Amino acid sequence: MDLSAAKVIVSVAIAVVLWWIWRTLEWVWFKPKMLESYLRRQGLAGTHYTPLVGDLKRNFHHVEGGKIQTHQLTDDIRPRVVPYPLQMLKTHGRTFFTWFGPTPTITIMDPEQIKEVFNKIYDFQSHIHSL
């Protein structure tokens, strides 16, 4: 009797661990890669997904590089304040996507497209994460 109860407990524990591994893989890899593929099929350009960190590491390196340079008050401060989005703008154009961890972030700089998004606000899904 004790042996069969132990087998049931071990089986349930294995099932829970396998379920947790599947959910983690889905969150970290499968869903972001599916979203990346979908965005590229829609014609958007952007960076390739990096598991868990997304573009945070690239953004950090651009910001650190901007701190080294000295600037005058008359200089354009955009390269120092937002160097990574400016690099993406130069590389991919006025509409692109980047990654904030496993979540894609779409940047739209075309006024007509922005107007369309605001006019159809309920058609576009938006997630606001509080810190």
Polypeptide structure, described:
The chain contains five helices and three strands. The chain is elongated. The protein is mostly helical. Strand 2 (95-100) and strand 3 (103-108) form a beta hairpin. Helices cover 58% and strands 11% of the residues. The protein has one domain. Strands 1-2-3 form a three-stranded mixed β-sheet, sandwiched between helices. The longest helix has 40 residues, at 2-41.
| SSE run | HEHHHEEH
Estimated share of beta-strand residues: 5-15%
| Rg on CA atoms, Å | 22 Å
Q: What distance separates the N and C termini?
A: 50 Å
Number of strands: 3
The main β sheet shows up as: 3 strands, mixed
Brief account:
This protein has 131 residues and is mostly helical. The protein has one domain. The protein is built from 5 helices and 3 strands, in the order αβαααββα.
Secondary structure blueprint with pairings:
Elements: H1 2-41, E1 45-46, H2 56-68, H3 78-81, H4 83-92, E2 95-100, E3 103-108, H5 111-119
Parallel strand pairs: 1-2
Antiparallel strand pairs: 2-3
Key features of this structure:
5 helices, 3-stranded mixed beta sheet, 131 residues, mainly alpha, 3 strands
